[in-house]
Design brief:
By secondary structure, the chain is an alpha/beta fold. The protein is built from 11 helices and 14 strands. Helix 10 links the parallel strand 12 and strand 13.
Length: about 290
């Protein structure tokens, strides 16, 4: 059976890698003062630099049923037998609900919606792994079983430059008490990519140095010192901080390979300029 994998732009998977693995994206929209814009139409660097001062602050719009049905029908007409959509966490978006509406217009055996329960490269590892397994002839059930097993093997965390931007959209859950003193003390917010809640706050670290130190401690606690990982680093125009994160992670974990995937426009809208994420997980070269 020939299966086409779909996922969201919030995975940060670079276009060239998605093309290599035959993965297509479902795009979200950014709603700005002048209307709705798809991610591919937005100048990423310009948007990230200006978004903090935008008033009103932009919002995101989930993909509707037509945004799913049209590409699903297109690939099925091109010779694929099945579409397999790995969706963004329902804690962050209702896009999966739109996908479920869309597939009602297809035959039952033509589509599967899989809830990744996560976002960013955590979700990206799942999409790449699924595509790889389908190319090897694995069944839908076998791929689902494998993706379920990955959820205990992938860990992601990161930091942002400001609590104000991190909590502005309401998508980051406040897992720690944050007060006005955070700005006075120059605390930098930290967050975890969490399979139960989407994105949760890990509190703040004193400056970027303190925040990186706390994230490293968190990675030590949540990952295995004997496991060899791939490391996916992403940034919203903060390459030096991203390199610092890489250096510190390599001191504490066995890293087989490092990948750099820029934070997408939609994710930068939530995480803020200067954000950096680090995801550790198994290789999709399975």
């Amino acid at each position: 059976m020939k299966v086409k994998v779909f996922t969201d732009v919030t995975t940060f998977i670079p276009k060239e890698l998605a093309k290599e693995y035959d993965i297509d994206f479902i795009e979200l929209s950014i709603l700005m003062e002048d209307g709705a814009h798809k991610e591919e139409s937005i100048d990423r660097e310009d948007f990230i630099n200006k978004m903090k001062d935008m008033d009103p602050y932009p919002t995101t719009s989930q993909a509707n049923a037509h945004d799913f049905l049209e590409p699903f029908q297109k690939v099925l007409s091109e010779g694929y037998d099945h579409v397999f959509y790995i969706g963004l966490s329902l804690n962050l978006s209702n896009s999966q609900n739109s996908a479920n509406i869309a597939i009602k217009k297809l035959k039952k055996e033509q589509a599967t919606i899989y809830d990744s329960e996560i976002m960013a490269p955590c979700q990206g590892i799942m999409a790449l792994s699924a595509s790889r397994l389908f190319k090897k002839g694995k069944s839908i059930d076998e791929v689902i079983t494998y993706l379920d097993s990955l959820k205990d093997k992938i860990y992601g965390a990161g930091l942002s430059s400001s609590f104000d931007i991190l909590f502005k959209t309401g998508k980051v859950k406040k897992g720690a008490a944050i007060s006005m003193i955070s700005s006075v003390m120059q605390l930098k917010p930290m967050f975890e990519l969490n399979f139960e809640k989407g994105i949760i706050s890990l509190g703040g670290g004193k400056g970027f140095k303190g925040a990186v130190k706390k994230i490293i401690e968190n990675i030590q606690e949540k990952t295995d010192s004997e496991t060899e990982y791939v490391l996916i680093l992403s940034d919203a125009l903060s390459p030096d901080l991203m390199m610092t994160m890489e250096k510190e992670i390599k001191k504490i974990r066995k890293i087989k390979e490092v990948y750099y995937w820029p934070i997408s426009v939609v994710a930068a809208h939530t995480l803020g300029k200067g954000a950096v994420t680090a995801v550790l997980g198994p290789s999709w070269e399975i």
